[in-house]
Amino acid sequence: MGETTNPSSPSARLTVPQIIEKRGYPVEIHQVTTDDGYILDLHRIPAKSSSGPKQVVFLQHGVAESSATWLVNPTSRSLPILLADQSYDVWLGNVRGNRYSRRHVTLNPKKADFWKFSWDEIGNYDLPAIINYILKETGQPKMSYIGHSLGCTTFFIAMLKHPELNDKIDTMVALAPVSSFAHFTSPIFRLLAPFGKTLEKFFRMIGTWGWLDGEGFGELFFRAVCGYSYKQAKFCRDLIIFVTGPNPNNLDPAIALLAISNVFRGTSVPVIAQFAQNFQAGDVFQAYDYGKIGNEKRYGSKKPMEYDLKKVTAPVYVFSAGKDRIVSPLDVDWLETQLGNLKGSIRIPYYDHIDFIWGTDVKEIVYDQVMALLPPP
């Protein structure tokens, strides 16, 4: 995956375990059931050395993605592979609703009830279940956590909803972390955000709760648009950076099909709506807005609950981008004034939102620094 300069590479059709095996690494599939019944797939690359338990590093993807997003880049700059080469015990998460975690003990993903979740449920249920499972499975008292975008947001929620988890994290690395969403500049999102409530009501009315999965027709469409020539791949590369930020030379067109298909792995309508809600709310990090009546029932107030980030006591290192249109520097500045245990902050002036996972220079610019922050394997 990402090893070829051919945009139409068949590697785009491989599952995460198949990708890892193809690259010559062992892989395990683990299943975790949350307290509210969602069944999540975890993908593990066991440490190379078998001389006792190894330091655990867990990677969490962003919105509508899956564990595959960390493997879009070639082996030489893929973070899970780089960590595995250093003999870390690497785990890749998948949250409810994406194609690897679309199961439930009783609910049917073809029905609306399955999709009635927001950032809050992912943070309150998925991540605690995952963290506790991994630590029990490995026998380790602590683990390192690396998140990208919404993978950071849900971490903060987990630490606030379950304060005991803070002591189980030795290092948290936040890559382009979402919190306040007041200052994002992505043109299409800014155009649609004011209509968030209307659009959400429309999708409910037509019975759509889960979306943004490129499976089936979507994959055929992406392949037709992005996958048959370098010119098409470059067009799709430019489409990505139009949304995420202007740094075209750091995204190889050869991985454009893989990249764009990996931002469509499935999520719920409320998850997307919560971005618009936080944009409208201003400089605040808040829970899902159920409306005045719903908020009174859920939070005891007409407004959604605000998360107090000062109560996140796990040590956090923030990496942000100067040209990020989704997580703006202003929003990151606000986040850094709120976190209870901020250990360090690095801003890369020319980076945009997706450079942290798909950039051509991400190993030298980001990952080498990230690995230096982690406890030794």
From TrEMBL:
Residues 16-73 form the Partial AB-hydrolase lipase domain. The active site is at 149 (nucleophile), 324 (charge relay system), 353 (charge relay system). One of its GO terms (molecular function) is lipase activity. InterPro entries: AB_hydrolase_fold, AB_hydrolase_lipase, Lipase_euk. It comes from the Eukaryota. The keyword Lipid metabolism applies. Belongs to the AB hydrolase superfamily. Lipase family. This is Lipase.
